[in-house]
Design brief:
Length: about 170
């Protein structure tokens, strides 16, 4: 009879532990970019429109660390823009606003283009600064599921992946 109680107690304790562990990974959704990361796959194109070396790459790394799917990054056709812009390409302003919030960009416009294979286009201007970079000097956040961040030491940048951007 005592064995049954021990088995029942072990099952209850195991179930409670599993629920507790599962709850540790959850966090409240408090920003537009976090809400998108949880629910949607947003395809993003990031273009360096200001001519600052590495700007599109840094913006890409930031967006990927927040769960956005950056399908292309590189240079714009010209380096003439001072301020950054985020364009909605599919009629979902909430997606464009989430990307803009993640990058700290306030200019968001709707310019749907069915010929593009992206949901959002980001044009990084000369004045763009990575949110939080000035405060802590970090180039990107640690993301447990991204092996490239496991070996990062002292803010070293990731090697280039795919994209075309001059340095």
């Amino acid at each position: 009879m005592k064995l049954r109680y021990w088995v029942a107690a072990a099952l209850v304790a195991g179930g409670a532990a599993a629920l507790w562990i599962r709850g540790q990974g959850e966090r409240p959704v408090d920003t537009a970019s976090d809400a998108l990361m949880v629910r949607e796959r947003v395809r993003v194109e990031v273009l360096n429109a200001g001519g600052v070396p590495g700007a599109a790459r840094r913006a890409t790394q930031l967006l990927r660390s927040r769960g956005f799917d950056v399908v292309f990054w590189g240079n714009a056709e010209a380096f003439t823009e001072d301020s950054s812009l985020v364009y909605d390409r599919v009629g979902r302003m909430d997606w464009a606003e989430g990307v803009a919030k993640a990058l700290g960009i306030s200019n968001v416009l709707s310019r749907p283009d069915p010929n593009l294979y992206v949901d959002v286009t980001v044009r990084v201007g000369r004045e763009w600064e990575e949110p939080g970079a000035a405060a802590d000097g970090a180039t990107g956040a640690f993301v447990w599921w991204n092996p490239r961040t496991w070996l990062r030491r002292g803010g070293a940048e990731d090697p280039q992946e795919h994209g075309t951007e001059t340095r």
